[in-house]
Write a structure and sequence with these properties.
By secondary structure, the chain is of the alpha+beta class. It is about 25% helix and about 30% strand. It starts with a helix and ends with a strand.
Length: about 130
C-alpha cells in the first residue's frame, strides 16, 4: 500500500504549501461511502498551530489541500488500532524517503490520527 499512499501524497504536495501552515496532520476515519464496512479514508490538513503536548492543534485547520473531496481510500478488514499503526508506519517511511518529505518537514510538526481520537506525532522540527 505504500506506493499508493506515496503517489497520493506526491500529487498533493506538488502544489505550493500555504505560508501560514504550521502543522500537518493526516486525518483518518472510517468511511462507509464507497463500499460499506472496512473502508478507510485519509486526508491531509494544514493547521495554523502546532503544539506537541496539546492535540487540539489539529482543530486549527487552515486548509485541506483538496483532500476532503479526494481522500486516499482503501478497504481493509482491520480494527482502527491496526489502521492507525499501519498508517503511521507508511507515513514515517514517506518522511524518510518520500519525494516531498522535506516539504512536509517544513512544518513544525506532522501527525496522524483518527478525527475523533488521539494524534500520533510522527515528526517535530528541531528548533
Amino acid at each position: 500500500m505504500y506506493q499508493q499512499v506515496e503517489q497520493w501524497i506526491n500529487t498533493i504536495l506538488e502544489q505550493d504549501m500555504p505560508a501560514d501552515i504550521v502543522g500537518l496532520n493526516f486525518n483518518l476515519y472510517e468511511d462507509f461511502e464507497p463500499g460499506g464496512e472496512n473502508c478507510w479514508s485519509m486526508e491531509l490538513i494544514g493547521t495554523s498551530s502546532f503544539e506537541e503536548n496539546d492535540e487540539d492543534w489539529a482543530c486549527d485547520e487552515a486548509c485541506d489541500f483538496g483532500t476532503r473531496e479526494k481522500p486516499f481510500r482503501w478497504k481493509e478488514n482491520a480494527g482502527w488500532e491496526t489502521i492507525l499503526e499501519e498508517s503511521a508506519q507508511i507515513l514515517r517511511k514517506y518522511l524518510t524517503e518520500g519525494l516531498y518529505a522535506e516539504k512536509l518537514k517544513q512544518a513544525d510538526g506532522v501527525g496522524v490520527g483518527f478525527v475523533d481520537g488521539n494524534i500520533e506525532i510522527l515528526y517535530v522540527k528541531q528548533r
